[in-house]
Amino acid sequence: MMTVMLIDDDVPMLDYVKFLLEQPGLELEHVASASGSGAALELFHEHLPDLAIVDIGLPGMDGLELAEAFRLMKPEVRLIFLTCYEDFHYSKRAIQLEADDYLIKDELTPEQLKTSILKAMDRFGERRALLERYSFQQAIERNRGVLKRNFLNQLLSGSGKWDHIRLLGERLGISWRKPFLVHGFLHIDAASLLSRYRYEDAPLLHFAAGNIASELSAGPEPITALMDGENGIYLLWNAEDPAAPRDGLIRYMETVCEKAEQYLKVTVRGFYAPEAFPVRDFARAYKQLAERRDHGFYDPPGPAVMLKPDQDYRSAPESKPGKEKSMLTLAIEEENAAWINLAVGKLQQHAGDERWSPRLLKEACADCVRSMASETNGAVEEAFFHHLSRALHVEEAAQLTKRELRKLWRRQSLTPISEREKDTRLQAIDDYLRQHADRMITSVDMAEHLYLNPSYFSRYFKRLSGMKFTDYVNRFKVDMAISMLRRENETVENVAYTLGFSDRAYFSKVFKKYSGKSPSEFKNA
Asked: What CATH number does domain 176-306 carry, 3.30.70.270, 2.30.30.40, 3.40.50.11290, 3.30.460.40?
């Protein structure tokens, strides 16, 4: 019910207007009356009525000035002015105040007042609705993410009425006019994120990627992007036909991935379900997609991957990763980080060949990190285990594990003195050789890595180290081979293969050149 206040210094007129307010068809509540400007201001501030019927000819502060003060206290208040005579100056100011009417007292009839009040009521309702929409839009701009998460939670819970959920979605700009939804999500590769940022920056990067996804969802494709704590950036593609090609969704995912790489310098991957579900079957579709999150774990990575319904994963490994752990011990004992890359590479290879379940590989990676942390008396951030558990590709899990192991290794093995003694370029070369110990690195490879001309690099390296780059690499590998051959059950063939040599004969030749003995002679000594 609309509330009304009357202001007039003519008391009989006040009583007459109050009487007219009681006529049928006017749903009004009379909350206050005043015969002076001072009392009117106090009562208006106390009651904040929706409509003020004001006499223009008040002593002191006239009715127009009073109305201006009312508008400052309540901008949406409706105004009807009463006056003893027609005055162009007054009527012009009344129009400027957006008054609903300007009535002559001597000509006032019940029908005339009723018409003016009904007009004021209509305008008040329209203005209030407009202000509510404006206020809601402001809330959306400030809290859009929170509101969208609430919308997603309502869809998943199924506790609310569908019409209410749909209305909330439409007020958020989400309107699904077609009968089916294809569910998907975007995932930020944690290894790529941590190559440039810190663990604590991850929420901000997810927010930024979500903004990119939301902005691009305003394009021609009917796609909705929602931030979801479980699935990162959840996507919904509205389709008319469940068998419709997914080209539009795939293009959208590819564009988001490109923009994220361009602006954020992180790798984003898209995943989607092969089926389309009815819009109201939201919760079941969401649950099914969540169960398939890592079904592309060993598939070639890409910006848009369809998650297959079934994957045949092994729940237990054929052999435990004991050999890989011994390599990590060697990394500490020999102060050589190359063993880390070899150990994780072997683990990754076994998992792929035997089709370990993603959970199994992640547990093995976490176990390796805990083992090295124990040996080095180091600490591992909980954020590592969180991101590892959320990894959706074998390479992402492997790179995260290598990164954490190298952090532990550096704290234990590197000393400030040895670091200061090495030239920055030579240190970069050593790091690269450690990371690619299973390959035969040439001077051209290293020059490309350092962004140098190959000819210049060869001359520069000779001046820096006093030897050719090939000799430096071979000595590096022979030192690693010596450490490996000291193990009781190690074979010459496996050492040669692990260190990237093409065959045993070539490995034996290089080994003897730099150690003075053949691998067999060294092994049997």
From this structure: 3.30.70.270
